[in-house]
Amino acid sequence: MKSQQGFLRSILVSAIVLLAWLVYMDYSEQWFLYRDNWFMSITMIFGSFIAGASSEGGGAVAFPVMTLIYEISPPVARNFSLAIQSVGMTTASYIILRHRYPVEWRYLIPVSIGGIFGMILGTLFLVPVIAPAFVKMLFVTFWLSFGIVLFYVNQLSKRKVTDKLRVMPAGENVGLGFIGLLGGGLSALLGSGIDIFSFSYVTMRYHLSEKVATPTSVLIMALNSLVGFILHNLILHDFGNQEFNYWLVSIPVVVIGAPLGARFISSRTRKFVADFLYLVIIAQFIGAWLIIRPTGKLLFFTILVFLFGLALFFIFSHKNRLKNTPGDSLNETID
């Protein structure tokens, strides 16, 4: 009986969203949207699952697929990513909190606060000046460098991890807020970014377990997506019909896929979580490289981003200055 009640409570948010969506679609008679936009529903089957199961939001799949394969403009892809994550990752967040999956609030709060300012400032000052092709390669290359460093410290250095951080000194909280600021700027450009940027920082610097950092990053990205969606839709009014139509045909997929991803990954080992992330990152980079085939300035920019990312994440991995409390479990390796 208790298990049945728990299951019903878990799907409550998804059921409410689905009901509201059904009423709207039927009242507005917009079922015809699936005729031309079905590909986004298919894309978000994978995107929403990855959003719930990894430190990358659904935009991590939607943005490169939309811009690289379907040649949709980056602003549309970004707006859609923020909108769909505000639904899918919020429902996944409910599952995470409802089932009490491990979340590290000591880094979630300062990163989220910094992320709000990063999203606002990035939208106002970064978005207008960065060319679309550079945005695409920045996205996949930066995360490739992170994946390589994570693989190195896990497999070759036999990184030990903790599932709990001690109370953060004021200076560390400021640093985490700054990471949120930078990550929010990335999300303003790409539709996602604060999740994996903060994930990379805490797993490298503080050796926080991927099993804890992953659900925490889902909550961070859900909040950041809501801020971005509100900013573009209600304040800047640049949320167009194209991304709105994509959003409508994807909602029923993500409210199921993202929570399923969250539940799926919760029962997997830390090694599985890390391996899953490597696969996603490598697939994104190979796809982008084959489609864009960067040359000239773009190739130089890609190499520069890759080297900068390697240096940055290696620095993170050697900056584990916080000592663990006696109750912390700094003894699990990737083996």
Protein described:
This protein is mainly α and 335 residues long. It has one domain. It is built from 13 helices and no strands. The chain has helices at 2-10, 12-28, 33-53, 59-69, 74-98, 105-126, 132-156, 170-190, 194-205, 210-235, 241-266, 270-292, 296-317. Helix 5 runs parallel beside helix 11 (241-266). The protein is globular and about 55 Å long. The two termini are 38 Å apart.
Question: Descriptors for this entry?
Answer:
335 residues; mainly alpha
State the separation between the terminal residues, measured CA to CA: 38 Å
What structural class do the secondary elements suggest?
A: mainly alpha
Topology order in helix (H) and strand (E) letters: HHHHHHHHHHHHH
Multimeric state of these chains?
Answer: single chain
**Rg, nearest Å:** 19 Å
- What share of residues is helical? over 70%
Tally of separate domains? 1
- Report strand %: under 5%
Label the overall shape. globular
- Major sheet size, sense and barrel closure: none
Summarize the structure.
The protein is mainly α.
